[in-house]
From TrEMBL:
Keywords: Fimbrium, Signal. It is found in: Fimbrium. Its main location: other. It comes from Buttiauxella ferragutiae ATCC 51602. The keyword Signal applies. Residues 1-21 form the signal peptide. Belongs to the fimbrial protein family. Pfam families: Fimbrial. This is Fimbrial adhesion protein.
Length: 188
């Protein structure tokens, strides 16, 4: 092989990698984004939208302290809720009627009915102050971590008779106690 050919081959070999490493234009890739905008996908289950909770009758002298008596469990179920990463819709209570100084619900007409109160409680029996509407309650399935999309979500609560904190030493009077509370289910 002649010397000129050999020098030409070596020069080409040395120049080739630098030419191949130089891109011919901009390089890049694709980034995909995936999201969902939901106002509220939940539907309140049949019968749970507007319902009446019937409490057992109680003798007025049994309602004599800040401890609830004749407590009744109840639940509100929703379905078709979108839940991702255990971020479930929360239930919020609001109350437009009469409440005492601890947030217990009073009979809607202060001139008739019993002067007893009703206390709304969470599933563990913790009292809910109806003067405050900012506390959200999570459904039980999410708390236990066993929710599958499409199943119903259940919000569990309790309600019972209680002596109004505003009665001091007065006795609870007999009579009806009628009141209501409103709720919303929303994502926060």
């Amino acid at each position: 092989m002649n010397k000129i050919t050999l020098i030409s081959l070596i020069a080409c070999a040395l120049a080739a990698p630098s030419v191949m490493a130089e891109p011919s234009g901009p390089v890049g890739g694709v980034i995909k984004f995936d999201g969902l905008v939901v106002a509220n996908s939940c539907i309140i289950d049949n019968g749970d939208e507007d319902k009446t909770i019937k409490l057992a009758h109680v003798i007025n002298t049994e309602i004599n302290s800040d401890d609830a008596v004749k407590v009744k469990d109840f639940s509100i179920k929703v379905k078709n809720c979108y839940v991702a990463n255990n971020a479930a819709p929360e239930l919020y209570w609001s109350y437009a009627g009469r409440v005492d100084s601890k947030g217990y619900m009073l009979h809607r007409d202060e001139n008739s009915g019993s002067n007893a109160a009703l206390v709304l409680m969470n599933s563990s029996g913790g009292k809910i102050d109806m003067r405050k509407s900012g506390e959200g309650f999570t459904p039980g399935e999410i708390n236990r971590g066993n929710y599958s999309h499409g199943e119903k979500l259940t919000y569990n609560f309790k309600v019972g008779y209680i002596k109004s904190s505003d009665l001091s030493n007065d006795l609870v009077t007999p009579g009806p106690i009628l009141t209501q509370a409103n709720y919303t289910v929303q994502y926060k």
